[in-house]
Amino acid sequence: MKSFRGIMAGTLILEAIVVALALPIVAKLGDGIGTGTGYFVLGLIVVLIGTCGLLKRPWAVGVVAVVHVAMIASWWLLTALGGIGVVFTLVWVYLLWLRRDVARRMAEGRLPGQQA
Question: Which terminus, N or C, of the chain has the lesser number of Cβ atoms within 10 Å?
Fold first, then answer.
């Protein structure tokens, strides 16, 4: 399952980049980057990048889920950030379903690399 850790880390980095693209929105439409909203977005970027190092741990998926709940809950703070949270939550649901499906196929010996 090392390959899924790489996919999950890549998804977190892409998510951090997309969240960083919300900073100009905070600067233009919000009160500025030096406010609570700006600090929240910056903190979210740091947490997303930092979570990449935790993916070896069994509880890392729970941390990712908490981060996404916080992003969706911030809808009232910045609508764009809530929308990003919804989109990436759907991506993570698909990734976790895919990981479960591959693990099931591995256990059954039905992966193409396992065919002899």
Answer: C
The DSSP code for 115 is -
| CA-based radius of gyration for the chain | 17
Whether 87 and 11 have beta carbons less than 8 Å apart is answered as no
Neighbouring residues of 49: CB distance < 8 A, sequence distance ≥ 6: 12, 13, 16
Provide the total of helices (H) and of strands (E) in the chain, helices listed first.
Answer: 5, 0
Instruction: Judge contact between 72 and 90, C-beta under 8 A.
Output: no
Can you tell me the distance from the alpha carbon of 95 to that of 57, in angstroms, rounded to the nearest whole number?
Answer: 17
What's the pLDDT score for residue 116? 62
* Bigger pLDDT: 12 vs 23: 12
pTM of the model: 0.86
Inter-residue contact 71 to 37 (CB < 8 Å): no
